[in-house]
Amino acid sequence: MSAAGLGSLAARPAPRAVLELLKPITWFAPMWAFGCGVVSARWSGHILPVVAGVVLAGPMVCGTSQAVNDWFDRHVDALNEPGRPIPSGRIPGRWGLAIAIFWTLLSLLVATLLGRVGFAAAVVGLALAWAYSAPPLRLKMNGWWGNAAVAVCYEGLPWITGAAVTGGTTPGAEVLILAALYSAGAHGIMTLNDFKSEAGDRRMGIRSLPVQLGVAWAAVVACVVMASPQAVAAALLIAWGAPGHAAAVAVLLLVQLGLMRRLLRAPREMAPWYNATGTSLYVLGMLACALAV
Fold first, then answer.
1. Which of 51, 72, 267, 272 could potentially form a cystine with 219 if both were Cys, beta carbons 3.0 to 4.6 Å apart?
2. Cis peptide leading into 13, omega within 30 of 0?
3. What pLDDT, in 10s, does the model give residues 98-139?
4. How far apart are CA 136 and CA 281, in angstroms?
């Protein structure tokens, strides 16, 4: 590293700023999805893969993705959210990049506790995390591709990994289908997160769905994308002989549809509210599906 690079690492960030960079609030989704995988695999009772998998899915891989994203988004955040750790200077110099690299390597170390399948899943998740934010791919420059990558990392990948490493076998078709459906639906959830940064994204050339479609139509697309896979999942559960679980998913979806009506009236203002209400119902549906299979 050059002398300038060493100098930029001389002033160390406070642990609180590092924790804020890793965004613990975002860890819940992949940790929950991993837990759904454990449930759907009829967990055998061994605690180590469960603990290691939850830590890997949340604090490690998801935490890495947040650090990587904030480093490569530091110029956008200076416009949209200047109070974040990097643009505010609370994580100075090149510390943001150093933390992202260190957390990547630490994630791979933790992944070795989960065998070949768990390690391979971590490699895929970390590769998508870097591809989402870092050049040359920088998938987030297009909302269709970027949101898909995040949705897979947040829902499908940890769900399938949880089922594989705790079930001791390749997940069945039902698990794979449900994980794919809820990954598809999570694409809409990711779109909701883009409303708050629409103005800055437009200025920086980031083609999020609110930028491409406009806020109103992006909200409609997000609602359709969130609701449709849940309807398919409920229908499949009936076909698979789990009508009670299908009814639970259907009721949760109906409540979400009611909440979506309010969301569509003012998408930019109501997106955080919907994330706290409708998204909570969405993940409860995931658990109902996991219990069914």
1. 267
2. no
3. 999 999 999 999 999 999 999 999 999 999 999 999 999 999
4. 36
Residues 221, 276 share a domain: yes
Distance, CA of 265 to chain centre: 26
Instruction: Determine the Cα–Cα distance for residues 101 and 68; give it in Å rounded to an integer.
Output: 8
pTM assigned to the model: 0.92
Counting the structural domains of the chain, the total is 2
**SS3 of residue 112 by DSSP:** helix
**In the numeric block, which tokens belong to residue 21?**
């960079």
- How many residues in total does the chain contain? 293
**Residue 109 contacts by C-beta under 8 Å, 6 or more apart in sequence?**
none
How many Cα atoms are found within 13 Å in the side-chain-facing hemisphere of 183? 22
**Cα–Cα distance for residue pair 223/229, rounded to 1 Å:** 11
User: Which tens digits make up the pLDDT trace of 51-107?
Assistant: 999 999 999 999 999 999 999 999 888 887 899 999 999 999 999 999 999 999 999
Kindly report the CATH number assigned to the domain that includes residue 46. 1.10.357.140
Is the same domain home to 76 and 152? yes
Q: Which two tokens stand for residue 226?
A: 């969130």
